[in-house]
Design goal:
The complex is a heterodimer.
Chain A (H helix, E strand, L loop, with lengths): L2 H36 L4
Chain B lengths: L6 H32 L14 H28 L4 H31 L7 H25 L9 H10 L2 H11 L9 E2 L2 E2 L3 H44 L1
Antiparallel strand pairs in B: 1-2
Helix pairs in contact in B: 1-7, 2-3, 2-4, 2-5, 2-7, 3-4, 3-7, 4-5, 4-6
Classes of the chains: A mainly alpha, B mainly alpha.
Chain lengths: ~40, ~240
């Protein structure tokens, strides 16, 4: 049993999931703050 | 805390703080992972799989700290009616659930070569799985209350009570390896010291701090998103009223 395969799988999963939540949170924030600032005031 | 009850005042601090938490957090994670993978020696018993420790332990900590944060936010919402508390609780839930899932997955991946099994229904693993289900329930309740227009972008009082009651699971997770016989090892790091050798331990400090800072940055991003959406919603309502 190659132990490095398990190590690589654990790191890949954790870093991919973390990167995904960062990108989604950042994009949602940019989009929402952009809309909040750009919309013409009544 | 009520000094930051004003969203404008909170945003004035949160905007620069997001970057101050994010970039040092990311740098520490990358440095910690590199050192954990390529600099520290393999463990004499576990071999190379000990390196999974550097992501598994911070994920476990953030899963538990996240729910503790939800409970504190719920208390502030229910007792002091702090207007940002419910938004903070809702912002914590998704990253908290994610890190709990990462903890379970990386623990399972570590368990296969070390214990010979992917999963064991022992106290630590089962209570951590319960925490994941609590997070999913909280997220479902928070989304439902947001759809019904309760909580002003945050969570309803019923969701906050769920967050408070769910906190009972945190000490259970913490003490599970002491209360029950478990495949999972006992507490390795306590206030009295660590049973892990220093040559293996130090990158854990980097990833632990790095993931914690990054978690804070993610929560701030999500709070900023909710506050911006509240602003849009309020403007739309004013426009609709003419």
């Amino acid at each position: 049993m190659n132990q490095w395969a398990f190590v690589a799988a654990a790191y890949a999963l954790a870093l991919f999931a973390t990167a995904t939540v960062i990108v989604l949170s950042w994009r949602a924030m940019r989009e929402a703050e952009g809309q909040a600032e750009d919309r013409p005031r009544p | 805390m009520h000094r930051f009850a004003n969203p404008a005042r909170f945003l004035k601090i949160a905007r620069p703080l997001t970057g101050w938490l994010f970039w040092p957090g990311l740098s520490l994670i990358l440095a910690g992972c590199f050192c954990g993978l390529f600099v520290t020696p393999a463990d004499y018993l576990q071999g190379e799989t000990v390196r999974i420790l550097y992501i598994h332990v911070p994920a476990a900590w953030l899963g538990m700290a996240g729910w503790s944060g939800i409970a504190v936010a719920a208390l502030m919402q229910l007792v002091w009616r702090h207007p940002l508390a419910s938004i903070a609780g809702r912002a914590i839930a998704s990253p908290g659930a994610l890190f709990t899932a990462i903890c379970l997955a990386t623990g399972s991946i570590w368990g296969r070569p070390t214990w010979g099994t992917w999963w064991e229904w022992d106290g630590r693993m089962t209570s951590m799985l319960v925490l994941l289900f609590l997070y999913l329930g909280y997220i479902a309740l928070a989304n439902a209350s947001a759809r019904q227009g309760q909580g002003q972008g945050g969570v309803s009082a019923a969701t906050a009570i769920f967050g408070l009651v769910g906190a009972i699971n945190i000490p259970i997770i913490n003490r599970s390896v002491v209360w029950w016989n478990s495949l999972h090892q006992g507490p390795s790091i306590t206030l009295r010291g660590s049973s892990i050798d220093g040559s293996l331990l130090w990158p854990l400090g980097l990833t632990f701090l790095g993931f914690s800072l990054l978690f804070g940055a993610i929560v701030l991003m999500r709070m900023r998103t909710m506050l911006a959406r509240n602003k849009i919603e309020a403007r739309m309502q004013r426009l609709a009223r003419g």
